Amino acid sequence: KQAEKAVHQKKEQSKTKCRKARRRHINLVAEFNRRQRKNIWLETHIWHAKRFHMVKKWGYCLGDSPTEKSYRACYRAMTKHCLLQDLSYYCCLELTGKENELLKQLARICSIETGLTFEEACCLSGRFEGSLNLYRADRYPKDVLGPVTFIWKPRDGSENRQLWIWMHPALKQDILRELKAIFQCSEPEEICTPEPVTRSVEEEKQTNGVLSLGKKRKKEDKEGEKAVPVKKIIGDGTRDTFQSYSWISQATGVVISDRTMEILRYRLIGPLSHSVLTETLKAASLQTV
């Protein structure tokens, strides 16, 4: 009985590949994409995962608290040097259309009694970023949606303007629904999606023969079938992968685009923030045709 029990309790041999195989680039990319199916990673995820306790919130995997006692170092950086925060999980909605039409409809979801609006001269020029509270259309001071920040693209001589609105992911769906309602953006803009390339049977045999000559091992799943590398996920934790991310209005001509995870956002805190930016970013030379 003891012998039979030992046979049943014997663990199966691990089929995990060696470290060298697991650290190959193609295997790393496939593994990272598989782990991002439920919670999206930021660009700085790997750096944070090695140094922070990670939490899953709003469809993202974010760094919550450091694993080491670095509170004094962070405070020292904020007061004397520079501290960088990754705020890329904040959602960004882009509005494109005529300036008068944008300001006319946006005035319905904010109020001058609360402070700045989208029409503020310093913000409208594109030099400064503004912040305000949004409300449902013509419902001020009731039905508040939440705080947002915005920035206008500087004028380029055209009557069309671009406006980027940043908001917390918990507020995105409500604000997006309200913007689509006031601008009458009900039809999704057509987006060209490439069709999957189909290969003939002869080409597949040739590729399989080349791989067999090179003696490269392919990753296999639990059923023993060849696993297909997972493509990089498009979208974010607040938007479905196959959901339309751009809407156009036939009446006003305004286009609403979801730029979440397409435009990264970082926050620099500290007295040396400006010098860090000037040393990091170099102005591009103007080229006249």
From TrEMBL:
GO cellular component terms attached to this protein's record: nucleolar ribonuclease P complex; ribonuclease MRP complex
Stretches assigned to coiled coil: none
Domain Pop1 N-terminal: start-end pairs: 4-97
Pfam families according to UniProt: POP1_N
InterPro entries linked: Pop1 (IPR039182), Pop1_N (IPR009723)
The protein's name: POP1 protein
Domain of life: Eukaryota
GO biological process, one term: tRNA 5'-leader removal
